[in-house]
Amino acid sequence: MSNDSTNSQPAATAAPRQLTVRAVVLSVILAAILAAANAYLGLFAGLTIATAIPAAVMSMAVLRVLGGGTILENNIVQTGASAATSIAAGVVFTIPALVILGYWHDFKYSWVMAIAGLGGLLGVLFSVPLRRSMIVEDPLVFPEGKAAAEVLKAGENPGPGVKILAFSGVLGAVVKLAAASGLRLIPDSAAAAGFFGKFLAYVGTNLSPALLGVGYIVGLNVGIVVLSGSILSWHIAIPIYNAFFIDSDPALAARVAGQSAADVGFMIWSAKIRYLGVGAMLIGGVWTLFSLRKSLLSGIRSGLAAARKGSGEVVVETDRDLPMKWMLIALVLFVLPLAGLYQAIVGNWFVSVPMTIIMIVAGFLFVSVSAYLAGLVGSSNNPVSGITISTILFASLVLILLLGRDSPIGAVAAIMIGAVVCCAAAVGGDNMQDLKAGYIVGATPWKQQLMIGIGAFCCALVMAPVLNLLAAAYGIGAPTPEHPNSLAAPQATLMASVAKGMFGGELPWNFIAIGAVVGALTIVLDQWLKNRGSHFRVPCLGAAIGIYLPLELMLPIFLGGLLSHFVERRHGVNPHNEEERDRVHRPGTLFSAGLITGEALTGIIIAIPIVVSGRADVLALPASLQFGQIVGLIVLAIVAWLLYRTSVRSQQ
Q1: Which of 461, 491, 521 is where one domain is finished?
Q2: What is the pLDDT of residues 331-352, one digit of tens each?
Q3: Is 641 found in the same domain as 520?
Q4: Domain membership of residue 345 as a residue range
Q5: Can you tell me the distance from the alpha carbon of 586 to that of 599, in angstroms, rounded to the nearest whole number?
Q6: Are 453 and 87 spatial neighbours (Cβ–Cβ below 8 Å)?
């Protein structure tokens, strides 16, 4: 506990600068840029990456050029910029479902801004009462918050970290520019497939450095789990279905007739097998809530107790939250426009008012769940998608009673509720990480809470234009003749499938049921490992993501996790010592964050000429200058070697 103590200031000494104009401006700029990058990554791979630590490093570099910044100024910058992760996740995991469902043809600016902005602000308000119980009175780990604090405390010499981030950012950008959506020097993936009698075999990997970086950050345990889920889909379920069950679906059998082995695999996966992941995700979300029931109730009780404390108390600056009475006023002001949005959808106050109540109740409950999970495993591993699925199911059940199962607007209404709750839950968990970092370095909580609210709303302002740009350039959802390599938006597609299935749509419920059984067995296995005291765990939601996503996306994540394991082995790190692991992995984490940021930002930039010209191949070089899969694999191997070398040599 002593390591987290704050540094109180003498009465005669001016407090260090925190919420300065330059810190706010820099935070807002970084938040908007990183939100756009995370939006691309979320639509591409169904994942977002934490931005607090890269933002802290960049802040220290920029403020040093401007004359130097205090540790608390840099903390404010990373607090606001970290909203990029949460708002991007909340938006791309849900709102594209409205386009996939056909309710929208493009992304409406005012609607996206309202859903993301108000949802994010509600996340800040709902998480404030939880700070004392989860950070002060009964502190959780909040690993990313502790890591951010260490980066801030090491800010006296930010040079090496900035160099690593800049180099890897350029590397990620160059590889993305050279790939199939840019110059087409190398393909996006390398794969091989074939038939062995009636059985179909497929192996492939995406050549994205960003996915390699994601794998390094999440580690080998998660990499093994997600890859195992994909192996279940692609090496077991798809071959079995093609060999024994394809003829039971004449329409699908007619579609795959005469196609290549790779195309047959993807058609079967898209139509049937990925719904195994839906079933596993549903069970995983329900289990998450059940397993956290005691902690959830404890957090709610603590928040209510904090609200009842007298306002006349003298509170030190480092323990001062936003005033409760102002939070309650803000809650009313934020909820009223959301009620108006719901009314605009359903046109019936007897439905829109219950929708609003569901949103408030689910929002507070799931922000508490998100905050607790962030405290245990970090924001990057926080299963916000499972929380959102649970919200959509709960909302759908109530809406079925109010609107009927055949309502044409029911699925849209459920997605709208889920989108607000998803944004709130993502921001709530991220806010607690920032408050943990602030608690360690001696920041003022209310200033951080205000800053993440500002950052969240500013991110919401740019999301609709970014989504429209990406949709026009690449397409979102299922591939079309115009966009054969569209951004899969896997999480939003999942949300749309669940909502549509609840309101009379057609879903392969038998596969969902089988997936639910697989999810239940995964939970049993995970509990068995827990009871044995094993440090290797099998989180159901991680396995479900692997089942639901293509194998080629999971393989580089596994390889990145394998690299992180080799780094630990090279330095003789105790894998159970989190502090030692964080220290050893810091250079590799910065390198990985640069790969992700550079690739994602380049994806945004490349989209501009594609949209302006209306041609997906506008940047493509002549075919004589384009190389094949072997060169792409060599490039990925070089990136992996540089990541490993940076992680090892930076410790010497």
Answers
A1: 491
A2: 888 889 988 888 888 888 888 8
A3: yes
A4: 17-163+289-308+320-491
A5: 20
A6: no
Residues in the chain: 652
Total number of domains constituting the chain: 2
Vertex 557 angle, CA 551 and 558, to 5°: 85
pLDDT digits (tens, 9 = 90+) for 395-436: 888 888 888 888 888 899 889 888 998 899 888 888 888 888
What sign for the dihedral angle of Cα 181, 185, 189, 192?
positive
pLDDT, residue 129, reads 78
Could you give the CA distance from residue 300 to residue 306 in angstroms, rounded to a whole number?
10
Would the CA dihedral through 452, 428, 350, 403 be positive or negative?
positive
Q: Which two tokens stand for residue 543?
A: 């396995």
Is position 5 within any domain? no
How does DSSP assign 308-321, residue by residue?
A: TS-TTS---GGG-P
DSSP reduced 3-state for 259: coil
Asked which of 445, 474, 491 is the last residue of a domain, the reply is 491
Residue whose C-alpha is closest to residue 407's, from 76, 23, 10, 101: 101
The answer to the question of residue 295 being in a domain is: yes
**pLDDT of 25-43, one tens digit each?**
998 998 888 888 888 878 8
My answer on whether 154 and 172 are in the same domain is no
Summarize pLDDT for 145-156 with one digit per residue, the tens.
776 776 777 665
Residue 378 lies in a domain: yes
Residue 100 to residue 415: CA distance in whole angstroms: 11
pTM exceeds cut of 0.70? yes
Same domain, 59 and 91: yes
Residue 92: is its pLDDT beyond 80? yes
| Residue 202 identity | Y
